[in-house]
Amino acid sequence: MSTDVEELIRDGVHRLAATAAVPAGLVGRARRRLRRRRLAGVSAIAGAAAVGVVAAVVVPGAGAPAGSTGHAQTAGYVTSRVEKAVAAENLVFVGRSDSKLWGNTVTWAYGSRSRFEEFSPKADYRDRVVNGQRLWDFPPQERGLPYLAQGTALVGGKLVSAYVTYFDRRYSLSPLRPQPNSACSPTAALSMGGPIIPTTDWAAFIDGTLACGAASVTGHVLVDGMSTVRLTGKPVTVRLQAGYAKVVGAKWVTVRWTLDVNPTTYLPVRMYGSTETFGGRAGRYTSSSVTNVRWLPPTSANIAQAMVTIPPGFHQVSSAADQ
């Protein structure tokens, strides 16, 4: 399933559970099931067709002309710089996202290889005692430890997609899926709402996204004291299928995203994505993530980080649905 819909399901369950006293571990078990479904069949850089969304997509301005010669020249300048930067510097992408609620994530990518890893939070803000019963979302023995990993693995001399869940010591394998070459399609644009990176070919991705009008150059912002060029994506709104709408308590979802690039190399340094649900009993709710990016030299050690390693003793299952 696609990241956009499954992320919504996860957040919807949290909103519903947050308003009621539930047995210890129940929310955590539900979240595990939903995280499995969120990541099942999705590579760390997914490009599959969205599942569970009605094909009623509102993309304000997407696909329309950029609007001015000045903008077109700016976009062309940015993409030419990105192409030169990526071609000249064969670097390893490292993106880190911090979250007090869901745990931190780290993404490594190099060429066709990638590894997305999620950790359980070091602390659980819902850990409390209610009516003499202890409640939490994440068991104490799992906090701060790896929760799951997804990406590419080398199996039998061939790159495949691997999904590893540490809490039950299982893994599943599937064929690699193609990466999107831009954020022009609704599915690719929706994937920008979370921390999982959509591509490892930033030159083509940014070039295509600007060219179709799905994003534009919107100015300069400071990131850790450095001035960066900001690319802002057009908001994408879709109507959820009835089954998913019932789970999350909302009928619609809107994704927004920005990408800040280094003004010298024009490589991404920070990514922001948000997913907002609305139009139902749960009201409006937004989950967001900020991914800070570093570019490391392509040493053997750094390249190795962009691969999923299946730990010894883990049991292979037929699909991620079994994890």
Characteristic terms for this protein:
single chain; about 325 residues; alpha+beta; 14-stranded mixed beta sheet; two-stranded antiparallel ribbon; 7 helices; 16 strands; globular; disordered N terminus
Task: Describe this structure as you would to a colleague.
- The chain is of the alpha+beta class and 323 residues long.
- It has one domain (3-312).
- 24% of the residues lie in helices and 34% in strands.
- The chain has 7 helices and 16 strands.
- Strands 1, 2, 3, 4, 7, 8, 9, 10, 11, 12, 13, 14, 15 and 16 form a 14-stranded mixed beta sheet that branches. Strands 5-6 form a two-stranded antiparallel ribbon.
- β7 (146-155) and β8 (158-165) form a beta hairpin.
- It is globular.
- Residues 1-56 and 61-67 have low confidence and may be disordered.
**Coarse morphology:** globular
Point out poorly predicted stretches: 1-56, 61-67
Count the E strands.
Answer: 16
Strand content: 25-35%
Element order, helices and strands? HHEHEEEEEEEEHHEEEHEEEHE
Q: Helical percent range?
A: 10-25%
How many strands, which pairing sense, and closed or not: the largest β-sheet? 14 strands, mixed
Q: How far is the first residue's CA from the last residue's CA?
A: 14 Å
Helix/strand-derived class? alpha+beta
Rg: 20 Å
The helix count comes to 7
